[in-house]
Amino acid sequence: MTKGPEKNTKNKALHTKLLNRKKTKLQEEKKEKAMRLKALVTKMNQKKTSDE
Q1: C-alpha angle with apex 28: 22 to 32, nearest 5 degrees?
Q2: Which of 23, 36, 47, 51 has the fewest Cβ atoms within 10 angstroms?
Q3: How many degrees, rounded to 5, is the angle at CA 36 between CA 32 and CA 43?
C-alpha cells in the first residue's frame, strides 16, 4: 500500500497560531468594550443620584 503525499503541517500550524491570535485579540477587545461601558454606566448612575 502506498502512502499519499506528505501533509504540509507547517502552514497549518502557522494558520492555527494566527487564528488563535485573532481570536484572543477579539476577546480582549470585547472585554475592554464591556469594561468601558460598565464604567460609563456607573458614572452616569452616580451623576443621576447626585442630581436628585
Answers
A1: 145
A2: 51
A3: 160
Q: How far apart are CA 47 and CA 40, in angstroms?
A: 10
Going by C-alpha positions, the residue among 10, 28, 9 that lies closest to residue 20 is 28
Q: Where are the alpha helices (DSSP H) in the chain?
A: 9-51
Averaged pLDDT for residues 35-46: 94
Location of C-alpha cell 506528505: 6
pTM over 0.85: no
**CA 34 to CA 24: how far, in whole Å?**
15
